[in-house]
Amino acid sequence: MPIHVALYQPEIPPNTGNIARTCVATNTTLHLIHPLGFDIDEKTARRAGMDYWQHVDLKEYNNLEEMFEKFPEARFYLIETGGNKVHTDMDFSNTEEDIFFVFGKESTGLPKDLLKNNTDKILTIPMGEKVRSLNLSNTAAILIYEALRQQNYNGI
Questions:
Q1: 55 to 37, 51, 72, 76, 118: CA distances (angstroms)
Q2: 120-154 pLDDT, tens per residue?
Q3: Domain tally for the chain?
Q4: Residue 69 is part of a domain; what is its CATH number?
Q5: Which of 25, 34, 65, 125 is spaced 20 to 30 A from 19 at the CA atom?
């Protein structure tokens, strides 16, 4: 599938679980970049009530570079609250192209040098000033569904 969600060193299990559920529902691939702040083995997933975990199209990497090298032709978007491009201004309609939404750690975000060297790839979702950020799993769902909407919900 052309839509991918990548989580860089996720720390909060329920966020990853909710994103995984959205990925299953939308035929989106989930990419996890280690280290993770929790276990994702089958027993842990089952105990957490994630009866869909076996259906997750899951890929794991030791670092961001490994993922970037595996998909040299993909379009990568870095998701940050301070981005200067609004997600709805982007064209995600090409169903032949791999599109990655890359999210950082809940506590610190993506590596600063990655952001500094890729300012043209940073996307944001508009929000009011009273909150620091949206919940990670909500943000992932917003982006996935915007891309799918532009693709006429191709594949689901």
A1: 22, 9, 26, 24, 33
A2: 999 999 988 898 888 999 999 999 999 999 999 98
A3: 1
A4: 3.40.1280.10
A5: 65
Q: Name the 3-class secondary structure at 19.
A: helix
Distance between CA 2 and CA 85 in Å, rounded? 21
Question: Tell me, what's the pLDDT at 104?
Answer: 96
Residues of the domain holding 36: 3-150
pLDDT, tens only, 117-128 = 999 999 999 988
Distance of alpha carbon 91 from alpha carbon 37, whole angstroms: 33
Structure tokens at 6: 């990548």
Residue 19's alpha-carbon distances to 44, 58, 65, 102, 114, in angstroms, are: 16, 11, 22, 12, 23
Q: How many CB atoms lie within 10 A of CB 33?
A: 23
Q: At CB < 8 A and 24+ separation, what contacts does 86-91 make? A: 86/123, 86/124, 86/125, 86/126, 87/123, 87/124, 87/125, 87/142, 87/143, 87/146, 88/146, 90/123, 91/150
Say if 37 falls within a structural domain. yes
What pTM value is reported for the model? 0.93
Residue 127 sits at the vertex; the CA angle it makes with 80 and 21, to the nearest 5 degrees, is 65
Query: What's residue 61's pLDDT?
Result: 98
Tokens encoding 48 = 């957490």
